[in-house]
Write a structure and sequence with these properties.
Number of strands: 0
InterPro entries: DUF1304 (IPR009732)
Pfam families: DUF1304
Radius of gyration: 15 Å
Number of helices: 5
Distance between the termini: 10 Å
Keywords: Membrane, Transmembrane, Transmembrane helix
Shape: elongated
Number of domains: 1
Order of helices and strands: HHHHH
Largest sheet: none
Strand content: under 5%
Protein name: DUF1304 domain-containing protein
Organism: Maribacter aurantiacus
Length: 124
């Protein structure tokens, strides 16, 4: 079960690496294909704002990767749960304020990770 939780955590971290790349380095190119509902004339003016969002995603990814390399099992689980909770909250907020799709892409994988880590932590 620990391996499943680690794989989910790793995948959520990779997802945030993708968000980082998209928002920091590909906002005016590839992001246009991903965010089709976003007005095309706003990509260039919002480039620095998107890069800021990408930086925040890098912190989430770093924390999730960090949770996978911590030697202490107790700390590893707690750090993973903290960063997955941050991702879940961001996904819920995005779903409420921007698009419900954000919950499915970002929040749901984090929620799944939280559930599996809780099963590991509490031995259920």
């Amino acid at each position: 079960m620990v391996l499943v939780a680690q794989i989910i955590t790793f995948l959520v971290a990779l997802l945030h690496c993708y968000f980082l790349w998209l928002e920091m380095f590909a906002w005016t190119t590839k992001a246009r294909n991903v965010f089709r509902n976003f007005p095309s004339d706003l990509f260039e003016p919002t480039k620095s704002m998107a890069a800021n969002q990408g930086l925040y995603n890098s912190f989430l990814a770093a924390g999730l990767f960090w949770s996978l390399v911590i030697a202490s099992p107790i700390w590893s689980v707690n750090v993973a749960l903290f960063f997955l909770a941050c991702v879940l909250i961001a996904g819920l907020y995005g779903a409420l304020t921007v698009s419900k799709k954000i919950f499915y892409v970002q929040g749901l994988p984090a929620l799944l990770g939280i559930i599996v880590w809780c099963l590991v932590k509490f031995g259920l």
